[in-house]
Amino acid sequence: MKIKLLCISILFTLLPASLWAQNLRTRSYQHFKAIEGFKGTPGYYAVKLDAEVSRMAGAYDVRITDGEEKAIPFFRRESVSLKGTQGQAAPKVIFSERKKDYSIYILQLPRLLDGSRYNTLLVDADKEAEITIQISTGREVDVWQSSDEVQVYFYRNQKKNSINLSGDDLQYIRLKTTGAHNLSFPAVTYQPVLRSDEIIQTLQQDKISCEQDSDTGNTVCIFENENLSSVKKLNIQFEKSKFSRMVILQAFDNETKSFHDLLSTDILNQKEQEAEYSFGFRVTNSPRYKFIIENGDNSPLIIKEVQFIISVEELVFDLTGSESDLRIYFGNRYAFAPDFDLREVFPEETKLQYLTLGGIQTNQSFSYSLLEPPLSVWVIRVLFYLGLLTIAFFTYKITKQNKVEKP
To answer: What secondary structure does DSSP assign to 129-196, as a single string?
Structure first.
């Protein structure tokens, strides 16, 4: 009986206070940053995870606390912001043709390099008319990616002379009118676009593991994603070479403990120069990626650099107004995903108030708990083997006692 009471006392001593209250054991996290800008107003807030946090934190080990180390519920989502500027540009007519029944114009647009997107083409005519136009757009001449039919009109008191444009990276516009019309194009307008925020994490050659498969002749490379960052694209740069190859990109699945295909495609470099290719896929937190190059009878390709394109994320949380000394803690690769249900009750139309992060600080009291990984794994193993030894001991005692009691 005394032994049982002693075991129970030890167990209660080891249990952290966070199991009995809504507190976070902050000592389990290696780093923290102050959340700045909160002035005590209740409401929904958000803070964007900067490059340091995105690089050093994993998929599950970010937590928010207040001054009393109370865990604040949050959910994590991809961060977006407006990219580019608003303005006008002058399109260039590179081809025009007027026939009895139609007119054709091909326009070249200035390339937008800041992430903006063309949204409107302005049209003028030399006389009053109502015109039906077949409009096609694309990145190359004669390679039209979208097509639509629109109407414009020009009268003395009113006119409709704007054509809506859609699609990224527009370079050329083809317009074909019903009837012969003399048109001019005074301007094309552009505007900023809501796009995902991104961070680039670079792997140099010494961090890239590549080997030749002796059976197939393929080059097999492993790219480690040590922090389980949310990767949505890989940029891979090859050293100078002229090549045509089939490549396969795979991601490691922690549940199945195996690689599964993300994509397979052909890559082609027709000149003896360095080449870079982008491989986009659904955002994944895989710990490693396998890149297979099917060489056939050709010489192996050499990878010079790999870039992880990581989605910047933001934390959305609800504050009552009484909180102070807000912080985010991170840096525990063994942490489990937080179990909050804030996303289910969050009104999507809510306007968020954005806060900022301060400088990174090292958690001087960092230490793992006996009841949390990785120490808990060893505790469980020790207890398991102690249990086996205990069972074996009592089995031996009972067996021995039975033998003694037999006549």
So the answer is: EEEEEEEEEESBTTB--EEEEEEEEE-SS-EE-EEE--SSS--EEEEEEES---EEEEEEEEE-EEEE
Q: Is residue 11 scored above 50 in pLDDT?
A: no
pLDDT at 366: 72
Q: Which CATH superfamily is domain 198-311 in?
A: Galactose-binding domain-like (2.60.120.260)
List phi, psi (to 5°) of 147.
Answer: -145, 145
**φ/ψ of residue 80, rounded to 5:** -130, 155
> Which residues does residue 353 pair with via DSSP β-bridges, in sequence order?
45
Tens of pLDDT, residue by residue over 221-244, are 999 988 778 899 999 999 988 999
The answer to whether the Cα torsion of 68, 19, 63, 322 is positive or negative is negative
82: CB partners within 8 A, 6+ apart: 192, 193, 194, 195
Pick the CATH number of 87-195 from 3.60.21.10, 3.40.980.10, 2.60.120.260, 3.40.50.620: 2.60.120.260
Task: Give dist(CA 31, CA 236) in Å, integer.
Answer: 31
Is residue 2 very low, low, confident or very high in pLDDT (cuts 50, 70, 90)? very low
CA separation for the pair 389, 380 (Å, rounded) = 14
Residue 19: what pLDDT? 36
> 280-290: per-residue pLDDT in tens?
998 888 999 99
Contacting residues for 25 by C-beta, under 8 A, at least 6 apart: 16, 17, 18, 369, 372
- Residue 69 CB neighbour total at 10 angstroms: 19
CA dist 39 and 310 (Å) reads 31
The pTM score is 0.63
**Contacts with 105 (C-beta within 8 Å, 6 or more apart), sequence order:** 93, 95, 96, 174, 175, 183, 185
Closest CA to 162 of 170, 152, 154: 152
Strand ranges across the sheet with 43-48: 63-65, 327-330, 31-36, 353-362, 43-48, 313-319, 74-78
Tokens encoding 207: 């961090």
